[in-house]
Amino acid sequence: MTISPLFRLGAALLCCILISQALGQDCSCNFHVKGDCQANGNACVCKLPIGPDLTPIDCTKPIPKCFLMKRESNPGKGGRRPKPENALVDNDGLYNPDCEGNGIFKARQCNNTETCWCVNSAGVRRTDKGDKNWKCTELVRTFWVIVQLTRNNTDSIPEADLKKAIADTITNRYKLPAKFITNIEFEGPLIYIDLKQNTTEKTPNDVDIADVGYYMEKDVKGDPIIPLDNPFQILVNGKNVPVKEPLIYYIDEKPHEISMKRLTAGVIAVIVVVVVAIVAGIVVLVLTRRKKGRYEKAEVHALVNLTVGFFKCILDLWDNCL
Ligand SMILES: *[C@@H]1O[C@H](CO)[C@@H](O)[C@H](O)[C@H]1NC(C)=O
Ligand SMILES: *[C@@H]1O[C@H](CO)[C@@H](O)[C@H](O)[C@H]1NC(C)=O
Ligand SMILES: *[C@@H]1O[C@H](CO)[C@@H](O)[C@H](O)[C@H]1NC(C)=O
């Protein structure tokens, strides 16, 4: 029995097409728009331009924040829910971080300058800044990340449905095991998501909560790291619930060491004494003038304005100091 050459050629071609499709399938970077992946045998090898070099990366899970920040080499207002003492906000924004080979932040960061400081495992500054001799003895772990989001509209949605939708987005999109999402709660338009993962709970393969926070922040800001064919959505009954103004808080396993410029008790005491003296002065003045029958409304108004001004000034100061 002979097989016609045409048939052989056809079979060979079909075979070729199938193989190339199988190889081409899914060999793209699911976790970075700029990831460059090439099929190599059965493997899909991905690289990302990090700093000046093309660095091999694993594109099947979120890429460590240190690499992402290095690649990019800067949130809204807080709500009323009390923040845990020691909560850090990433006010410093972006710097050019030094990463370990596995994408973990080096404990000391200098942003390629002479000024150095210590960071936590989320890369957020947790000490004051110093010179090149600044010492950081360990990388303190951020075991708790609070993601605060604001809903863009007030459409009423059952809380349980919204909670489930948010948790699904986090577990599916960022590959974070559900056990690390410890709480989701609502306060008017604000959404608070607690992600907790301490040193003992996290296995080397688990996505870090700080990486999830970073991906999510970028997603909500409309500047996604994940390719656009997989858009960020919080789906309730097939409908996206739009959110905005992400704000992320980082709480470390050890208290941070940033010296706070707060009003000390001494300064507060002085302010209170001055305020009491001024109020007493106005009362005495009004009473004595009234007795003498020389009470002038305009004068009192001027004094009241002066006092209000003084209070405003204190309040401004207060804001700046907290
Ligand atoms: C890091 O350096 C860049 C460029 O010199 C600068 O714009 C940025 O503000 C620095 N960031 C910090 C946190 O010092
Ligand atoms: C880590 O978290 C687990 C579960 O919440 C807790 O049992 C454990 O004591 C924690 N470990 C540390 C070192 O804080
Ligand atoms: C939020 O609502 C405003 C006004 O309706 C709209 O312009 C904006 O695109 C919305 N943002 C998101 C993230 O949906």
Automatic annotation (TrEMBL):
UniProt KW keywords: Disulfide bond, Membrane, Signal, Transmembrane, Transmembrane helix
Name of this protein: Tumor-associated calcium signal transducer 2
Signal peptide stretch: 1-24
Thyroglobulin type-1 domain segment(s): 63-136
GO CC aspect terms: membrane
Keyword Zinc carried by entry: no
Membrane spanning stretches: 263-287
PROSITE patterns assigned: THYROGLOBULIN_1_1 (PS00484), THYROGLOBULIN_1_2 (PS51162)
